[in-house]
């Protein structure tokens, strides 16, 4: 192998998203010379965006802003119950174009700040599509169709993924994905959301909140991988808000109608009953594919596993000087803070002498459905599978957020659950919460779970009143007791 200084860079990062940028900046902070390549291929509809990756441009950030827009619509109506004089409630409606403009303005400002930050931190940014020429050489295909070849001692692959399209007639021509939704130049209208994962539920939720009819098509179960009691509570709370779910159903085709709308034909996979309906928008939210195809991985000898890259616990591929982080790695959560944390820790190990590896356990997450769901740790069914039903205790309770009373908002699905070991101080294995600001509630508890939280400590924690987070400190009813988990009183 050539000595380290024979390479152009100490590190090349392919992919300038959450993980790649965090890794590149941390590597420079630890003394490395770093180049970071980023390139976005347009969607079939032609949508493209700037540096920063999925989260900033077509993921968490625009999603959260649209979710917030939807919640604000709800709040306007609630405000009237609280005594705000709203002259003509019926006239209140969303302006999709204005919303998209505001969201896109914010994204552009983040793109700009990102570029300035890279320049300030001395990361060389190359706006090109990267692929391997050999294990130490990466070629960047630039916008003007020229190529630039660079070498590095170490390479990190952080190319993320893109939405999948189903293999049915009309899918590519007429359907859109989350890559298009946040910059759509027309109001989506009546929308069919295919897929019942995070993206499907979140998009269907905010679209309905913004006043557009939305339907969720579920192939098998809602929120696969999550605690299924909680997943069903989330789905039921969406149905209560007027979002129908087509269960055990898959789409068969999409056709354009004479008046320019979209006719979707579908089939129920249990009854084989066929059905159809007409929509203005069809949104595919059926999962994401790792972007391995453009990388020419064979030239470097890197092994692929189900369109992702297989890595060991140190994010190392089968080629020892090549690593992968973020959504592109196989079998890890596809979440922004996971990509960032793994990227930083990797850079410190590569250039800062650190030995710390990423801990992928007990990563908290939130589904930004209209009534949000957040959790950390194990699902009830996973705990039962691992420890046996007799060895776990499940504490649970419905609760009534104080602020829901005056506007008479439904409290039916506000629910918390703690899954714990049954013996000793009852180590907490998982916490689950459906209700307002779920992510804000669970984030702090996630640190407690990481620190070995027990039910004894949780129930000895004095709550903050009146909050919804305090419900975790009031969990006195176990499922095993069979007692009614519906609250009788609020303040005593
Ligand atoms: P990415 O951010 O996808 O970055 C990869 C970059 O590499 C992209 O810019 C890509 O274009 C570029 N690239 C690809 N191939 C090449 C190549 N050959 N050469 C050069 N560049 C290349 N996560 C959360 O934690 N919270 C949320 O609320 C949340 N909401 C989401 C909502 C939506 C709609 C979506 C789609 C995702 C959401 N996520 C959320 C997931 C989160 O966005 C991802 O986990 C995160 O962006 C992954 O970061 P990454 O660095 O691995 O990849
Ligand atoms: P996902 O969570 O994997 O869900 C995909 C959904 O599509 C599942 O319900 C799946 O059903 C269904 N599906 C798959 N193929 C289908 C087909 N051919 N026809 C019909 N339905 C099909 O994927 P996602 O919602 O696209 O999200 C991708 C990742 O982004 C997530 O894993 C998550 O980590 C990240 N993300 C995070 C957040 C957040 O943190 N709030 C938000 C959005 C996205 P089956 O169960 O039957 O397979």
Automatic annotation (TrEMBL):
Pfam families: Pyr_redox_2 (PF07992), Pyr_redox_dim (PF02852). Disulfide bonds join 55-60. It is an enzyme of class 1 (oxidoreductase). Keywords: Disulfide bond, FAD, Flavoprotein, Mitochondrion, NAD, NADP, Nucleotide-binding, Oxidoreductase, Redox-active center, Transit peptide. The gene is 106080851. The keyword RNA-binding does not apply. Transmembrane segments: none annotated. Residues 9-343 form the FAD/NAD(P)-binding domain. One of its GO terms (cellular component) is cytosol. Belongs to the class-I pyridine nucleotide-disulfide oxidoreductase family. One of its GO terms (biological process) is cellular response to oxidative stress. The active site is at 465 (proton acceptor). It catalyses: [thioredoxin]-dithiol + NADP(+) = [thioredoxin]-disulfide + NADPH + H(+). Residues 363-474 form the Pyridine nucleotide-disulphide oxidoreductase dimerisation domain. NAD(+) binds at residues 195-202, 287. The keyword Membrane does not apply. InterPro entries: FAD/NAD-bd_sf, FAD/NAD-binding_dom, FAD/NAD-linked_Rdtase_dimer_sf, GSHR/TRXR-like, Pyr_nuc-diS_OxRdtase, Pyr_nucl-diS_OxRdtase_dimer, Pyr_OxRdtase_I_AS, Thioredoxin/glutathione_Rdtase. Its cofactor is FAD. This is thioredoxin-disulfide reductase (NADPH). It comes from Stomoxys calcitrans (Stable fly). SUPFAM superfamilies: FAD/NAD(P)-binding domain, FAD/NAD-linked reductases, dimerisation (C-terminal) domain. NCBIfam families: TGR (TIGR01438). FAD binds at residues 64, 130, 327.
